[in-house]
Every structure is written in C-alpha cells, then in structure tokens.
Amino acid sequence: MKPAFLGYDEARATLGWTEAVGALRAGHMLPRAELHDLLTGPTDALLLTRTAHIEGMGYGVKVESVFSGNAAAGLPNTHGAVLVYAPDNGILRGIIDSQAVTDIKTAADSVLGASLLARPDSRHLLIVGAGHVAANLAHAYCAAFPQLDTITIWARRTEQAYRLAGQLGTLPVSVTVSHDLPSALADADIVSSATQAREPLLPGRWVRPGTHIDLVGAFTADMREADDALIAAGSLYVDSKETTRHIGDVAGPIASGAVGADHVRGDLYDLLANAGPPIKSPAQTTIFKNGGGGHLDLMVAHAMLAKQSSRDQV
C-alpha cells in the first residue's frame, strides 16, 4: 500500500477544530503512550525526533529541524514531517507536514483541557500573545466554546495585537485589544497564554478566583508564563505528566518550594478516565499546562489519515 502524503494546506484542511479535539479525546481513552524524545546537534541548529507508540493506534515519528537563525533570513525556524505506522504490521500509512500537525494539536490540546476544567458559562477569553499560535487558539476556542462572546488580545507589541485582531474579524465574537494586562486578567473567564516569556507575566495577584488559565508558550526549563503564587493558588493539571515535568511553569515552583512535588493533580489521561473531570466551584482557579508531546502528534496525524482515507473511498 502506497503511503499517503499530506502537505501543509491539505493537512490543515483535513480536520476541523471539533474533530481535532475529538481525536485527542479518543486517543486518551486508549492505553498510555510510550514516548521517547531525542535532540541532536547544537542548540541553535537542532534535529528534534519524537517517537510515540499507542497500543491500538500504532507508531508515530515526528522529525523536525529547528534552526533559530532562519527567521533573520525570512525562513521558518522549523521544517519536518510526521510519519505514521500501522499498529499490526508496521506499514507506513502516511507522511504529513509536521507544522500542520503541530498547529492543530497545540490548539486542540488547550481546548480539550479547557473543556474539562473551565467554567461551563465562560464567555470571555483573553489571549496573551499575538503570534501564529494565538490565532489558532482563537479559532479553536470559538469552535469548542460556542457561548464565548468576547475575545481580548494582549501582547507586548500592541501593533501585533491589533494586527491579529484584524485577522480574526470573521469570528462570531467581539474581538478587542487590551493595553492593560491586569484589567484584562481581572475580567477574563479563560486566559490562554502563548508567549516566549522567560519571566512570569501572569502574577497570581492579578487573576480573579474562578479563572481557567491555559499555559501554552513555555516549553523549556528556563521559560515561565505564570508566577509561583498563581501556580500555588490554582488546581494544576497538565496534558502529560511525562512531557511537562521539566517545564519551568511546573518545575520552577517545585524547585523554589512554593508547591510540593505532588501539586500536579493529573493529566488528560486522568481527567478522561472513568471518574471524569473534577467538579469546579465558581471560585476555583484551574490551570492547564500544554506541553505537547509525540503522542498528541500521533493522535492528530492518525485522525488526519483516517479522514483522508474515507474521502478517497467516496
């Protein structure tokens, strides 16, 4: 059987946001994934290899080059592909542009967490950051939370926030730009932060009780979006215990003594287990750390190939 090949545009068009969230939900009902990551090369010119095995779904390998100097030359920093292998015979099922898979899985991951932890009556989403990921988050949240009526965008570069707001004009919500992060945080029901911050920009004292905090941006030990006070005050969940334990927003407060090593209450596997998500009181602040991982790439890529196969058979 010839493997399918999905370029960026074709892959992005394959799954809608609701389908992507459903794919992650279904994937977490299977046995926990086996994960292995490998970094090769200098820090500014890396080859990242992520492998995942999910019993009943198969094997996935995500290989990406990460060259930090590419942006200065007008080139994307990352280039790569996701390879999916069948669970029963190891046949290569498909090769998919890795950026398309990453775009879909990152936003869907956050939205799945929010659907399990945020207040059902949440109507105001604050997005901190105004880059490519922020745009995907806006679309994904609108698809999964039809009751949303307002999206506010805050970014250090205000002109970038206005540019993103203009791009989101077709969404069925009011999109505004805030110049005052403390005021925006005080009014939001859900806060989704997608920045490259090295120092916390979400202090606990600015967040009102009952808010759901979605931390997307930090992915290394020296990156932080939430301060120790916010992490300590909130009920902290992660997408995967295995892939988030080293990230600054999780490891930092533990290292400082602000919280204990058992502060993480669970991950998506736990939240979607038979017991179901916790009952959230109106005053309970919840925090979800989106750390990514090869298992999420595999879940989304598997769903893309299944959808493409069904289209080809029509």
Overview features:
25% strand, eight-stranded parallel sheet, alpha/beta, 11 helices, globular, six-stranded mixed sheet, 314 residues
Write a concise synopsis of the structure shown.
By secondary structure, the chain is α/β, with parallel strands linked by helices. Helices cover 35% and strands 25% of the residues.
Tell me what the structure shows:
It is globular, with a radius of gyration of 19 Å. With 314 residues, the chain is α/β, with parallel strands linked by helices. The chain has helices at residues 8-14, 17-27, 98-117, 132-144, 158-167, 181-187, 228-233, 241-244, 248-256, 268-271, 294-312; strands at 4-6, 34-40, 45-54, 58-67, 78-85, 92-97, 124-128, 150-154, 174-177, 190-193, 212-215, 235-238, 264-266, 286-289. Helix content is 35%, strand content 25%. Strand 2 (34-40) and strand 3 (45-54) form a beta hairpin. It has an 8-stranded parallel beta sheet, with helices on both faces. Strands 1-6-5-4-3-2 form a 6-stranded mixed beta sheet. The protein has 11 helices and 14 strands.
